[in-house]
Amino acid sequence: MRRALLAITGLAASTTALVVFKGSPGTSQVAQNLPTAQPVNPSGAGTDPGALADAPGTDPAGGTPTSSESAKPSTSPKPGKTTARPSSTRTTKAPSAPRTTTKAPQSTTRRVTGNGFENEYGYVQVQIVVSGNRIVEAVALSLPSGGESDIHSGDVRNRYDGRGGEVVQKQNGNLNTVSGATETSNSYKQSLRSAIEQAF
Q: Can you give the pTM of this predicted structure?
């Protein structure tokens, strides 16, 4: 019982003392009469504090550097010169494709003239046009002329010559004899065979 009473009494006394301390008027007057703190002159006794207010990096009100200026570094590093060096790897050109000279194929078509043969009616000579292994045309360069020979020579020419004549159809000298122009037909066959021998 005594212990509880002593505890209550002590708590009440400490609370009263705290209230009295805060409410006493002497403490606030003491705080008001204290002299204000004078700014410390960082440069010594012979300099004017007002001149320091205009110095860069100081706050005019209190002489302390501002936060934005104090955050800046004192010296800005000089940017170094960066020179890009050329790459050491050499660029090699792709080899150009070899030039292919394509010559136009030579024409395999050729003209071969057979030997000429003379008969009692005149002179006969034949030329053939050959493409590859084939006779594509036959032409009588010379046939007997004059009188009835013109008629018979015309019959021989119509029968043997050209691209659709008997020479192209048979591809050899074994031609049928034109009736009424036996001598001229035989001379034509002889000249044709000599041309075929030269061509093949």
A: 0.49
